[in-house]
Amino acid sequence: MKAMTSLFQRRGRRDAEIAEKCTVQSKIVESVFSASSAPLRQKRFLVVLVSMMIGGAFAADAPKVQTEPVKGTPVAADFEAGKKLYRRWCSQCHGDAGKGDGPAAEFVYPRPRNFTTAIFKVRTTLSGQLPTDHDLFDVISKGLPGTAMPAWEKYLPENDRWQLVHYVKTFDELGLFKEEPAKEQVVVDAPPKITPELIAKGKDLYQKKKCWQCHGQQGRGDGPSAAGMKDEWGFPIRPVNFTKSWRFRGGDRLEDIYRTFTTGFNGTPMPSFVDAIPAAEDRWALAAFVKSLARLQKSGQVLKAGFIGGEIPTDPYAKAWEEAEPFDFPLAGQIIQEPRWFKPMHDVITVRALYNDREIAILLEWDDGTNNKGEGGKPPDQVGLQLPAGAAQDGGKPYFLLGDARHAVDLWRWNPAQGLSRATANGAAKEKPAEAGGVLAQGSYKDGQYRVILRRPLGKVSPGDTAIVPGEFMPIAFQLWDGDNGEEGMKMSLSTWYYLLPQPATPLTAYLWPSGLGFLALGGEVWLLRRMRRKDK
Amino acid sequence: MTRYTLYIAVALWLAILAGLKLLVRPPMPASVLMIYMTLSTLGILVFVAANEERFGNFIAPLRAVFEGRAPRLVQVLVLAGIPLLLAWGAWLRTAPSSDAPFEPRVVHPEPPASFALHGRRIETAGLKNPLRVPDAAQLEKNTAEGKVIYYRNCFFCHGDTLRGDGHFSGAFSPIPANFRDVGTISMLQESFVFWRVSTGGLGLPRSATPWNSAMPVWQTMLTEEEIWKAILYIYAGSGSTPRTWEEEPKK
To answer: Which of A5, A120, B21, B87 could tie A514 with a disulfide, CB 3.0–4.6 Å?
Structure first.
C-alpha cells in the first residue's frame, strides 16, 4: 500500500488540529495514534483519515513560512566505516538494526530512537518532513539534553559523526530518505533582543494559543491534558517543564525554542505552530516568554538555614520563605540496590531552610506535572528527608542510601495521601516505623509544584533525634518519588549526603580581629614613617 | 628591569595563586592551597633576599613611599592599602564559614589480602582474570558480552565512552571513575578492579568514606563470571591495559 498523501501534508493537517483546537479533537487523534498497534503505514493512514474527518475544514496549503534550500552534505558516505562506528557506540541503545531496542534500551528514559520509521523530533524542516543531514549531524554532535544521548562532539571527530548520519539513514524501512528527502529547511533569522514587551506579548500568546493546556499555567508541564500522553510508538511522554531549560531536547537558546515552535517535534504531541501563529515575530515572542520561565540551578554542598526572629511561617508561599536562599540538589535514579530504578522522573529538588531560637524548618520544593494521591492504581508522590539518627561515635556517616548496619538514619517522609511519616533505617531492608515525635509537616500542590515544610525543635525530643546546633554541620540527604511514573519504595530519585548548617549570628570577635589588626598595621606604619622621614633630615 | 623587582614578585605571587585556584580541577581544599601559597611566598622572599642588590631593588618602591619621595597619591594608596589588606585577610579567617567540612578520602585504598565473594574467600594476591584467555576469538566474545553487561549496569554513571560522565554521574559524589584517566584502571591490576566491583562502595575501608560511594556491591547482582567480563570490557573499551602481577617489582 502506497501512502495517499505526502508525509508533509499528512503532518500539516495534524498540526493544524492540535495547534488550532488543542482540545477534544486532538485528543482523539492522539488516542488513535497511541492505541493502534497497526503496522506503521496503516497507522499513518489512520491518522490522516481521522485528521481529515475532524479537521476537513483545514486546507492542505503549505504553511507560509520562509524556507531555504537544504545545505549540502560535506562528507561522502562510507557505509562500512559508519557500520563499524555504529556498532561500537550506538547499537547498545539503538539496536543493531536501528529499532531502538539495544541491550540498554529498556534501562533509559526516554526510549532510544527507533530509526526504522524515520521520524525525528529535532529538525529544521517543516512538520512531518524528514530531517536534513545537518539536522541529524547536529543531534549527534550536541546530544539530546535530558536524555541518555550524549553530545558526541566531545568524543568523536567530525568525520565519524557524518558517517553515523549516513549509516543511521540506512535503517529507514519505508525508503523515505530516498523517496522524499527534505529539500527545503526553515530559515531561522538572527534572534531578536529579548525585551519585557516581547516577553509580555509571548505570555499573551501562551494563553491565547492554549500552550498551557499541556505545559501548564506556570509552564511546569502540568496542564489539564498533560497526563497519560503517548508518543507515536505508544511510549509515555510528558510535556516539557519550561522551568527546566536544561532538559530541552532541541536546546534552550532562543533560536532553538523558535525552531521547535516552527517545525514541531515529529512523533510527539508537540505540533508545529506555523499555522496557529503564522507571524515569525509572534513565534519569537512566544520563544522569549518560554525562555523567561527557565530557572537557573544553584547547587552547593551546604544548605544554609537563615535565622529569623519570631515564628517560621507555615505558609510555603510566605514572604520569609520567598526571601530564604534556595539551594538545588541534583538527584539520580536509585541504581544501587535491587529493585533498581533506571528511569526516574525527578532530577532536582530545591530546598530552603530557616530556624529560630526554638525550631528548624525545611521547605522542599519540586515540580511534578501530575498530582498523584495514591489513586488509580498508582502510588502517591512522595518526598523524603534523611538525617543521621544519633551522632556517629566513630566520625563516620551512615551509608547515604538508607543507612547501614552500624549507623542508622532518621527518615521524614511526606506524601499527599498519608501526610507525614517517620522511620529509622539500618539499610534498605531494615526499616522501622518511628513516632513522629516533634516533627511536623505541611504540604501543598499548586501549578505543577509541590511545596512541603518539615519542621522540628532544635533539641532532642524523641530518642531518634539528633540535636541540631546553630553553627554545626548536619549531614542531610533527599529522596523523591513520582507516583505517576510508578515510583515507590526503592524506586526513587535520590541525592548523596549534603550538609545542613543553621547559620549562627556573626560573633563580635569576628569583627574585632580584623579591625585590631588593621589599626595595629596603621600604627606600625605611622611609627616607620616618622622614623624614616626623620632620618632623612 | 631592576626597578620592577617588587612588581614582578607580586605579579608572580598572584599568578601562582590564580593558577592554583583556576587551573587545578577539581579545586583543592583551602588548607592545601594555604600550604602551597606559604611555600610560594617563602620561595619568592628567599630568592629576593639572597642577593643584597636584588633585595635593595625589591624594597626600593616601598622605601620611596615611606620616605615621602613617591607621588602623593601612591603614598596614600599604599599606606591605606596595607592595613586594609591585612584587615580583609583577617576577616576572611574570622568570618563565619559555611564551607562544607573537609572530608579526606583515599581514592585507591590498599586492597585487603582476601574478601568474601558469594560466601567464599577470594585471595587477592596473584588473582588473575580467568576470562582473559589467549584465544583471540574467545577473548573477543568474552569482551563483547562484557560490553552488554556494562551497558545494562554501569554506563548510567561511567558513561558511553567510559569517562565517568554518564547521565547520572552529576548527582553522585565522589564522581564515578573515569576509566580513560591514566590514574584509574590502567595503573591497577585486574584483581584490584575485581575487588572494587565485587564489594562496591560499602566494601571500602573507612579511610575511603564508604558512606558516600554510589558504587553498588555488584556481587549481589552479578555472577563472578559477569564481573570478569565487564572488567574485560572496561579495559578494552577505554583502550587501557591492566597492570599485571609479572610487572610487580620482586621483593
So the answer is: B87
